């Protein structure tokens, strides 16, 4: 059994999730390749039984590299077990999770995969006021600060909204799916 965890990450949040998924799957006895899509020119999904593709979300979009990977491997992914995950702010709030699921996972799957994915993971984001996120983040930073203050959180501090136990559970379910279908 062999799995590929391929991801695109702008600020490291999706990368950390991908690393944890890969580590957890490997501990369950599955051979895993972890690939930062930005660091390779092309990645072939053909040799894998399970392909997990993830992305961070910025300004409502997947990373270009992750989408390119899905498009470049569309025919080979049609014959694989495929799972998708994202790290995004929509996962941080219960009232925005359904919209995040639809926009960032269901729509991306419909546009870029032949078959439905075996699993999708909508995972939280990290708010870091000291990170260099660029002009778009700077324009919306005031909104984020007010939102954090409403929740009683200090906007001058880093906040990690990822549910690590949920991420590990998701990875375990994928491992079980892979092992049970062998």
TrEMBL record:
<dbReference type="InterPro" id="IPR026816">
    <property type="entry name" value="Flavodoxin_dom"/>
</dbReference>
<dbReference type="Pfam" id="PF12724">
    <property type="entry name" value="Flavodoxin_5"/>
</dbReference>
<dbReference type="InterPro" id="IPR029039">
    <property type="entry name" value="Flavoprotein-like_sf"/>
</dbReference>
<feature type="domain" description="Flavodoxin-like">
    <location>
        <begin position="3"/>
        <end position="144"/>
    </location>
</feature>
<dbReference type="GO" id="GO:0006783">
    <property type="term" value="P:heme biosynthetic process"/>
</dbReference>
<dbReference type="InterPro" id="IPR008254">
    <property type="entry name" value="Flavodoxin/NO_synth"/>
</dbReference>
<dbReference type="GO" id="GO:0070819">
    <property type="term" value="F:menaquinone-dependent protoporphyrinogen oxidase activity"/>
</dbReference>
<dbReference type="GO" id="GO:0010181">
    <property type="term" value="F:FMN binding"/>
</dbReference>
<protein>
    <submittedName>
        <fullName>Nitric oxide synthase</fullName>
    </submittedName>
</protein>
<dbReference type="InterPro" id="IPR052200">
    <property type="entry name" value="Protoporphyrinogen_IX_DH"/>
</dbReference>
């Amino acid at each position: 059994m062999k799995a590929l965890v391929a991801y695109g990450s702008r600020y490291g949040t999706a990368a950390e999730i991908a690393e944890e998924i890969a580590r957890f799957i490997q501990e369950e006895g599955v051979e895993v390749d972890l690939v930062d899509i930005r660091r390779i020119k092309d990645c072939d999904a053909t040799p894998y039984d399970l392909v997990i593709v993830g992305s961070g979300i910025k300004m409502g979009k997947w990373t270009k590299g992750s989408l390119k990977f899905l498009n470049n491997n569309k025919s080979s992914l049609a014959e694989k077990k495929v799972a998708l995950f994202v790290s995004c702010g929509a996962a941080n709030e219960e009232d925005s999770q359904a919209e995040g699921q639809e926009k960032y996972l269901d729509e991306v799957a419909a546009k870029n995969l032949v078959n439905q994915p075996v699993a999708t993971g909508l995972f939280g984001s990290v708010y870091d006021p000291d990170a260099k996120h660029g002009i778009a983040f700077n324009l919306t930073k005031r909104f984020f600060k007010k939102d954090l203050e409403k929740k009683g959180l200090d906007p001058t501090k880093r906040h990690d909204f990822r549910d690590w136990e949920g991420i590990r559970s998701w990875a375990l379910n994928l491992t079980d799916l892979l092992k049970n279908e062998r």
